[in-house]
Amino acid sequence: MSGARAITPGWRERLAGLLAWRPSARAAGERLPIRDWVSVGSGKPSAVSGFDQTLAWVVTALLALGLVMVYSASVAMHDNPKFANYSPTYFLTRQAMFIAIGFVAALVTLQIPIAVWEKWAPWLFAASLALLIIVLLPFIGKGVNGARRWIPLGVMSFQPSELAKLSIAMYAASYMVRKMEVKENFVKAVWPMAVALGVIGVLLLAEPDMGAFMVIAAVALGILFLGGVNGRMFLLSVMVLVGAFVLMIAFSEFRRQRIFAYLDPWNPDYAQGKAYQLTHSLIAFGRGEWFGQGLGQSIEKLSYLPEAHTDFLLAVIGEELGFVVVLSVIVAFFWLTRRIFVIGRQAIALDRVFAGLMTQGIGIWFGGQSFINMGVNLGLLPTKGLTLPLLSYGGSGILMNLVALAIVLRVDQENRQLMRGGRA
């Protein structure tokens, strides 16, 4: 695209002469349809204000709900001998601190042009790989419940897999831009990304953290698909990845037991073992009914439901606030994911392929992880150690979630500047 013009009366006619070219179809002369310039479902050109205020408010509402529910879910944890030295407000104050740190990091991130992220994407990916190696070192990585996933940093522990989710979105987008001319060639286009994904998989499974690997694999494959990789090659890649997951389950007694427990959670052999969390999560949702037992009135959080403030926070929300609020959370994440994808499509329509694919990769990350967490809580998916973005307790998760969303807002801001006739 040679330039961008402001959207004025008669914008359809003006844009007809300025239609962007898809990089994947320049040789064939294919043009973008006008619908890619407008907000999905609205039939009107996108607003050109400074940033997406609705997205910011939805994120703020989810953070506020998460802060309240983390406090509610953890207020009685000091009764557990494991947390006897913790005050009732320990997790509340730390979650508030994580949000504050994440907010400052997001403000700084918002000032960085997307062109800088594109330049540094391969180096950020390399840094995330280095951290995934460092966390496995016994004298550096912190082990919890048999998993070594955290690097202690004083005020908080950093989880490299959270950085890897963002870095894979950037690296895969940068990779597709660089490989656009050879995307039909398996050896040149798909194989190198498959090797990179395999290295990440080996490192994450060594922690172990299969849930994070599933999200990262979904982000990488999603960007390859959206970037225009040949459909047969994409299908082959998916089949290989699914086969790898099946083999990991087949050769791991621990993972097989989780699958069996998921299929029959009320079986006495599993109810007090591998299905313990799932059964108590379902009990929590059952007690909540439509409008819940009331804020703070959960029974399951009283040392019955493990990880109530992290992986199973949605179950506590369901028990205390009911189906109506749970449905509202689901709708909020659906809207957030959809809005991120719309921003990504607008960037691609403005011939900003890296920004668009990276943004859509972030959308896959948020949508995929929230779907898995909600599915686990509701008994629709086998139990995995994935938190609910923006809501669950955790410093690394909150920090990287807010940084990623700040990047999305920066992409949206640059899109609007271009549509006003300025520069990104």
From TrEMBL:
Tree of life domain: Bacteria
Subcellular compartments = Cell inner membrane; Cell membrane
Kindly report, in one word, the top-level EC class recorded for this enzyme. transferase
Question: To which pathway does this protein belong?
Answer: Cell wall biogenesis; peptidoglycan biosynthesis
Q: For this UniProt entry, which segments traverse the membrane?
A: 55-76, 96-114, 120-140, 186-206, 212-229, 234-252, 312-336, 348-368, 388-409
> Which E.C. number(s) belong to this protein?
2.4.99.28
Q: Which NCBIfam families match?
A: ftsW
Protein's name in the database = Probable peptidoglycan glycosyltransferase FtsW
What is the phylogenetic placement of the source species in the record?
A: Bacteria, Pseudomonadati, Pseudomonadota, Betaproteobacteria, Burkholderiales
